[in-house]
Specification:
InterPro entries: Glutathione-S-Trfase_C-like, Glutathione-S-Trfase_C_sf, Glutathione_S-Trfase, Glutathione_S-Trfase_N, GST_C, GST_Phi_C, Thioredoxin-like_sf. With 213 residues, this protein is of the alpha+beta class. It folds into 2 domains: 76 residues, 3-Layer(aba) Sandwich (Glutaredoxin); 119 residues, Glutathione S-transferase Yfyf (Class Pi), Chain A, domain 2 (Up-down Bundle). Helix content is 55%, strand content 8%. It has 10 helices and 4 strands. Helix 5 crosses helix 9. The longest helix is centred in the middle third of the chain and has 34 residues. The chain is globular.
Length: 213
């Protein structure tokens, strides 16, 4: 059976989510670079892996997956006994798993859409020689502040967002947090003590350092 392959781009936050998970699990894999600038992700060969033309795509032997959060959950379950446990300490406890699932949903629907707009405005626009729209930044920062207020309250009770152990809930945030730490939006993290500690904790992990260099 063929090994694991990740088809993606190293600057893509969804791709980074999958790479982080593999590094945390100490799993060997082959990375296949997808040329986004050249439109490779919209061509027939890649669309056969993900019909929506987005990175990453993933293979584990005969199994083919897309959507980064689905891939990370597959890896965390399939290789649960290897490397870092990314599930609740008692992964069979349905209540504990549901808490982690809530955290993943909050990241996907409350944190990421807002944070991604801020990254687009303050990172990728500049790389393209475009001007950041400060009105958009102000609007999105106000939304992100509300999310981080919820996180601050949660992190006063627990070390991590889903409890006292590092899980996929935390991991899913790392790529976009990494980008925002290089922008003025960093202040939203640093002015909240518990959030600031959590950000420092999740970004200093060895797996994080491998993709954040």
């Amino acid at each position: 059976m063929a090994g694991i392959k990740v088809f993606g781009h190293p600057a893509s936050a969804p791709t980074m989510r999958v790479l982080l998970t593999l590094h945390e699990k100490n799993i060997d894999f082959e990375f296949v670079h997808v040329d986004l600038m050249g439109g490779e992700h919209k061509k027939e060969a890649f669309l056969a892996r993900n019909p929506f033309g987005q990175v990453p795509a993933f293979e584990d032997g005969d199994l083919k997956l897309f959507e980064s959060r689905a891939i990370t959950q597959y890896i965390a379950h399939r290789y649960e006994g290897q490397g870092t446990n990314l599930l609740p300490a008692d992964s069979k406890n349905i209540a504990h798993y549901a808490i982690m699932a809530i955290g993943m949903q909050v990241e996907a629907h409350q944190f990421e859409p807002v944070a991604a707009k801020l990254v687009s405005e303050q990172v990728f626009k500049l790389k393209k020689g475009l001007t950041t729209d400060q009105a958009v930044v102000a609007e999105e920062e106000a939304k992100l502040a509300k999310v981080l207020d919820v996180y601050e309250a949660r992190l006063k009770e627990f070390k991590y967002l889903a409890g006292d152990t590092f899980t996929l809930t935390d991991l899913h945030h790392i790529p976009t947090v990494k980008y925002l730490l290089g922008t003025p939006t960093k202040k939203l993290f640093t002015e909240r003590p518990r959030v600031n500690e959590w950000v420092a904790e999740i970004t200093k992990r060895p797996a994080s350092q491998k993709i954040l260099q």
